[in-house]
């Protein structure tokens, strides 16, 4: 029993009775005040005695009660299952009428199946609960059960929901016949059609019109696309596609799958405007083609969009022996064979050994008389393993034959049209019935004449091995299966010397069949009434399903003419020697129903939609309930916006999609701060690597160096910073220290780009591989550096020599020390880069060392060293000096490369005695570094200077 | 369990930020023998000065070794060393050991930190500090901070204030003073009569000072069974604040009557400024009302 209120229809109207309870709810809600907030407060002692001036009213505010009543109302209406169905589309059914539903469920209905099912269900929504419904499908063959069972709308609903499109097209004849024996009663018919005119369509409409009023729900907005044909070309499989709706240009994508359902390739087919069909070729390598098992139109969701490809249509790989055949290429036998094979096979030419190594299906030998014994053995094994050998006769074969022949040959050939012969050339008249050539039609007007041939010795089995005969009965083509393979002999040459055969179209067909794999020619060798058992089926949606247990096998004779039917749905059928597919879309032509018979009410499925509203009502009730919860919390004082983080959390949760993630915001803010910090003060940066130990070392090293610089020079850096190449503004840092971790550093592309940009803009990289001495370590470090610098456009590098500015940019140095003493330091060779200097004055931007300087520099905040150093405190001091020099060099460039120190140097070398001009050249600042006493306790009171020793 | 180490660290770092602190001006005469040098001649162990003999000095007072170097007689004087005892007391009632927010210390902890810091600074100049009512010997050892904190945590929760030690010169009382003020008044009067200087520190929670409530609230005292629902607490606020101020004025009057000082502290305020105020309060007593 359902209740109709205007456009609303209630499926369970009894629930509405609960609305009577609403006034009661009003009183209950009024009487229950909200729960107070609990608060512990020591200073309550101060006002324990205070009389409450304004007691809370004992009732909830009226608008809250209203809100809650609204919630209750919505929930009750929602439970009453309201259905929106505008009256104009609801068919009017008298409750006495029986309803007959005819549902199209061939594979052409699959694309629009969901809307078809929705239409059917919405028709049921409008029925009375105990009205009789009969549901039949068009793909059925036996309707006695369906018509005997009188369903209620509820049970019919379950049945319709269980329906699936089937993997064949409906034949409406049995249905039309069955409908003539309907049970008694008044009937009204609903035909849910996929818009296609199936077989015996008119018969069905006639029957339906006789039964009673007919309403048609035509599902036309889901066009079908099907693959109707597959042809093998040398390029690859060519698919023909057809579509039911040709109004607009359309491109569909297709995929090819292998046996396990793995996608191998995809391609696009384009329908131009107004065209119903189109072709496309899967241009893929042969090796892939060999694995292709089925094709699918992506998104077609119907069995017609699936094409199974099995067996005979496969592209074959044919080997052609081509030794010593190149004298007159256009007259050679192989030329004709190659031409004839081209449409359907890939021809590979080569020597016999090469060909046998290459995994071939078919091998063709033209006029090869005698094979080497060794080759013959190999060839024999190959045939027994399933190879197909096709041989052509010729003068050499006629003279000297080997054993690899289907029949024994006479030692001479027969010439039919020669000066010494009375015979006229013989024509090819036909093929024996058992021959695979049998389906080839000969054109009577164009006789194929054979002028010369090799003859077979008479033999009891000769007849059964003969595939083609001449008019006088002599065999032209003989064949014998051999192990799993096959041996076929054309008794003429492959060229036109002996016959017209190579010039005729028949030759191509004969070759095509002769090169079929042996097992696919099984129908000739096995009994003609072999049956093929279904291996898998396609359902209407194009999914593979296991065949029904009682599925009937197909007789092999029927297979070529068979279309998918209810008995044999589309799928794959397998016999003892043959596997052949039955494709749903094979040869399908769309036939839309353009005009329905008069008296039929036709609607499209989109008009029909009724909408169930229960979800909306219940959902909004729930949403209001949430709102009520929040309001209650606020009223009770539990949720204060000034303070409570929970409120903010709740609002965040509600508005989450609208807000940008706060963390990202914070991130940029932090970044800006870091940028500001870096810009305001001189800082050194180090590259943050995956290895935290290395990072700590680099940071501590830079810190130690910074402290040293601060104490000894006017360079006063702030604490060092770890740098992320992509995030941080690199240009603010004068150099970046890269300490190579053990496993090297792998830069991402964007990091590499940022680093390259930094170097182009005048940055400097100090790379410390920290490996020290031994030779093998040196090699390893080289590889890590190469990996790191790859793509960074690094010029030629040289070890620093004694004259380089680095040796005197602050301290005078003899060598460069780190944790390992006196290691080479590699820099750009300034001369080479003078043409395209990146930094001014040809200053190197790359410093590579393996001395583990960062470890020698490393110190904690108080300046206490963290690592031990070879050679103790003095070595550490030298490492600091090396670092100071590098920093000075980076910051000041070749400033010290001029003559500033020349006088003092010359003086030390003892070459200049007159030192009167020295003070004029040395400013006090410059003089300071070389004069200061190193703060170490090595007992040495002058800085190391060249020439001291 | 209370994190006494944390409290001690807080108190020590607060004490380190406070200036030197000597309660010299008024109480010298009641001093006891102790270790704090008073920068004048008197009883003590350290040499202070030689002065010429006056007729009042007995011959035995003459420092003969010094006098032998010249013609005059010299008297050797020592520097005066005294010790004062400061006692602190933190209200042990349940309501005082309470906080409105997990991020704040309880009122009692705040008081402990402040008073301990004060006592540490006090003891640093040679004086002694102890917890009122504790049986332990007052000290100025390096363990003083933890001793004070531990003792103040173990103060028995009784309604009566414990009696003062005889030698006590200063007493600092921290409470929220929500209880009946009459016993306090009596105790203060008796204590002040012994010549003791004092400071009353009221520590309150921000929630108690602001009364940030609205809507229906059921109030309860910590440890108390009595509870009461107030309907519109936003209307209650004025009454509450008035009572709160009245109580403050009452306590202030108690302190001022005997020349003691009174300070209030809301938990979460900067401690250093407050500790300064407490120091000046202790030194100068009540500002004239």
Explain the overall architecture.
The complex is a heterodimer of chains A (949) and B (289). Chain A has 949 residues and is of the alpha/beta class. Chain A folds into 5 domains: 1-34 and 56-86 and 610-659, no CATH class; 91-220 and 602-609, von Willebrand factor, type A domain (Rossmann fold), CATH 3.40.50; 225-314 and 537-551 and 562-589, no CATH class; 319-516, Class I glutamine amidotransferase (GATase) domain (Rossmann fold, 3-Layer(aba) Sandwich), CATH 3.40.50.880; 675-898, Domain of unknown function DUF4159 (Rossmann fold, 3-Layer(aba) Sandwich). Chain A is 29% helix and 21% strand. Chain A is built from 27 helices and 40 strands. A 9-stranded mixed beta sheet of chain A has the order 17-16-18-19-26-25-24-21-22. A 7-stranded mixed beta sheet of chain A has the order 35-34-36-37-40-39-38, with helices on one face. In chain A, strands 6-5-7-8-32 form a 5-stranded parallel beta sheet. In chain A, helix 1 runs antiparallel to helix 2, helix 2 packs antiparallel against helix 17 and helix 6 runs parallel beside helix 7 (201-211). The longest helix of chain A is centred in the middle third of the chain and has 22 residues, at 614-635. The relative contact order of chain A is 0.07. Chain B is an alpha/beta fold. Chain B has 2 domains: 4-29 and 84-284, Rossmann fold, CATH 3.40.50; 33-82, no CATH class. Mean pLDDT of chain B is 81; it is low at 24-30.
